[in-house]
């Protein structure tokens, strides 16, 4: 195979005119050309909420979307809002696409977040909860239980709950207690029967106990399912916790803290020790949101606001129950008619065993890859019989000499981690590049990184100042006295659990150019800084941004020259100003630009004469759209990449990312067809419109449901079967 150039040979990659274009944007681009990124993120979570509101979706799935909304919003406050407040407090400049004046930004966020949280609570209390009740799934209050059920719960409370409760009084001898982030608490006002003095106490609802406690089934309704909220059970038994005291009032509340980890890395410092110290500091981050039940009295609220040093804008008064993340547990209810129809991932066609009728047949993954590049699409195609099988076969194959892999988010009990351990114990050279700074997975990553080290795996933690976010696995195998490189480059994490719900692509290849590229990249990641250019890879932080800008600029020039010109980008977030400006300039020149984005989008489509040729779509559903695709018409010889990078500053400037060029015509066609489906007006998607407003298009003019992109993709891939061997 000949070298695959970074860009078209006829395009001068060192063209001074190009540098002028990307570094000094055209004066014709309007000043207010970016949507506020934080409000755009809230618009994304609004799309999640729209799924919860959709009566055509299965009920338990709607409950799950309510839980996803709650979890998303928690992270938004812990990271995005916390980061904004930190920048404002320290006088740091806000990004260009943040929007207006700093304090106005926080005010806008607060207004929209209050509206969304109120709507979220209403969808649960007024819609989904009653609908579940009609299906025999009830959430009951204490006063709805009969005497026998109350006796059962009193025994449950005494044996399972009471021993782990820790009431904390607030008085001159007991200062106001520390309230941990995202904990559910009861604020209790009591009166001392002896002195007549009113006191305050805080009681944390134990997070290790089931939040929704099952109510024993009634003999006359054995199929019914009922739950009592744990905080309600505790509240009804407060007398046992405060004997001799009069319980005056009690209310639930929940605090969100700044949990964004910021590590100032130094060449001489131990990264693990620094991260562990920062994780301890995270627990004590300043409060940024206080959620209270709508019936909380002013005396209790004033105490919380004063002691937590929180503003009125940061208080969210909501109907109970608080923290609907508890609805994630609803997925364990055995009511298949209230869920999506189960989908069993298929084994990718290239990895299907020749003897498909045999129960124990297992394909030779290396032999399949030698026949040509293999593109896999999760979760429609199985992670277990592709990526996992690739690494497990490598671990037990005596001809494999070395395995090198990046790990961003996985788990200690993962078969991926176990395969690396097995390989090391079998005497192979194994390198695991572990990103311990993966947000909210830091502690887990440290734990299983040490487990790998104990097994003899060479564990490295990447480069100072950069997160390693690329998804790479490399296997070195001896074949007939020569070494062959087998490589996997993916868009998603090496995590078997999330692979069942995250939509991602991965490319397997034994192309020696890719092998050399990835070998050099691993050597640089485990040794020194990344400086080299690559053949089939675009790598951040040094070359990816400029490579993509040149590819977009080539489309602009092709359009001006009358050649076929189109840009298609599928990402989680579209935020980077240079990339957005390049897309605007391409649109002005007549390039058709299609952007498929899951979350934040600072790109606007309502700029006359600038964004006329830009369409933006979003797809949400049973799977989380996670793959990144970059496709360029290239004058008729399409150039396509997949990889790990979103269009955000952190991905392009502060992370190690990798895109791989897809070269097999069938794979380019498959990715193109997938994109066609999402951009087709007959598919159910959200369309970005004026002022950053997203409109859901899921039914036609006659009210008939439009095609579901994920269902259609699932059906297409399910039809792939290896032809039966003739006997």
TrEMBL record:
Catalyzes the reversible transfer of the terminal phosphate of ATP to form a long-chain polyphosphate (polyP). Belongs to the polyphosphate kinase 1 (PPK1) family. It comes from Microbacterium gilvum. One of its GO terms (molecular function) is kinase activity. This is Polyphosphate kinase. It is an enzyme of class 2 (transferase). The keyword Acetylation does not apply. Residues 34-139 form the Polyphosphate kinase N-terminal domain. ATP binds at residues 72, 502, 598, 626. Its cofactor is Mg(2+).
